[in-house]
Amino acid sequence: MENITATFKDTSRVVNLTEIPRKPLEEQIITIFLTLLICGVGIAGNIMVVLVVLRSKHMVTPTNCYLVSLALADLIVLLAAGLPNISDVVAFWIYGYTGCLCITYLQYLGINVSSCSILAFTVERYIAICHSIKAQFICTVSRAKRIIAGVWVFTSLYCVMWFFLVDINETIYSNGVVVTCGYRVSRSLYMPVYFLDFALFYVVPLFVAMVLYGLIARILFMSPLPPHLNDRGGSVHHANGTGKNSKGVRTARKQITKMLAVVVVLFAVLWMPYRTLVVVNSFIQPPYHNSWFLLFCRMCIYSNSAINPIIYNLMSHKFRVAFKKLCACSREDKEDKAAEYNMPMYFTVQRDVSNESHMMLTEPEDEEERGPSMRRQKMHRCDKSTMTNS
After folding, report:
1. What is the sign, positive or negative, of the torsion defined by CA atoms of 136, 139, 143, 145?
2. Residue range 5-315, CATH number
3. Are 181 and 80 in contact (CB under 8 A)?
4. How far is residue 152's CA from residue 118's CA, in Å, rounded to a whole number?
5. What is the pLDDT of residue 280?
6. Residues 193, 209 contacting (CB under 8 angstroms)
7. Rounded to whole angstroms, how far apart are CA atoms 282 and 285?
8. Domain residue spans in the chain?
9. For 91-111, how does the pLDDT look when each residue is reduced to its tens digit (9 = 90+)?
10. Low-confidence residues in the chain, pLDDT < 50
């Protein structure tokens, strides 16, 4: 049947007399499986990054502050873009008008904050390595926190425009109504917004990163490191004492710089398919909407938000040790809770055999005393485990 389309005065409602198009079953299965896998790994990993930095004083450095900001932004992307995609691929849009506004806003907020965080730690690395004297006064934790706060405020205000650019669209088919979260006006009018977003949060950060990492590489890999140079600029790797020789400092700085460079390269590569698609679709009519290529673009975006904790674990000894400590402390918590639950029952049996009346008078008091005591011992072990890594 030939498509017959009519537009009402309300531009968000369209009549299409064909049947509702259904996505192939294999596409639905692959989308759900990959989304759950990538988002599950990414959410767990980014939460661990935040926890290991907040729980360990020696991990609170300027660079790690930016990595926490990046982890929070990636969490927002995974929660606001990844998980809603599961329901959208099966039952179209189910979150209503408010969900359309809020989810779109959070998606762009997470994307833009992650880009700004990458730019921020790139500049911080450049100052720490290429201007080590100034870095002792510029690259501080307090300054990093102020910069991060500024980044979140700026991007939060910048993304407010999406509250006015998206709306619920309804398409009436012969066998039902399909609701989608789409554009409020014609897509051609969005070209300035897309290109501004493309320039500010993709082209500029990557250009700056390419220039700065070139300068950093010249210092680290081509120029000799001054003997007095230390790592007070705020790296993930701190020197173990003031007597650390220049070779050890150079090795530590090379390692953290390589790790951050890999994060930047992955950001550039994994975002390229989607960014390219947006630019191409701004000039061609009709736009290219191959469902499998769109799925590939989405999975690349989700992977970019999920892969950073894996990179930290592979390339940073400090993060690797901190992740292990966090997991070990979690296991100890579970074991202590099981012991705390079972111990009163054990003593109840022993007292019942020896002296039933004495048990009835003293057992409640013993339970109250043992609970806090065991919790204090558990906290002491976790704190001691954390402090030994300092």
Report:
1. negative
2. 1.20.1070.10
3. no
4. 13
5. 86
6. no
7. 8
8. 5-315, 329-387
9. 778 888 899 999 999 999 999
10. 1-11, 226-244, 341, 343-390
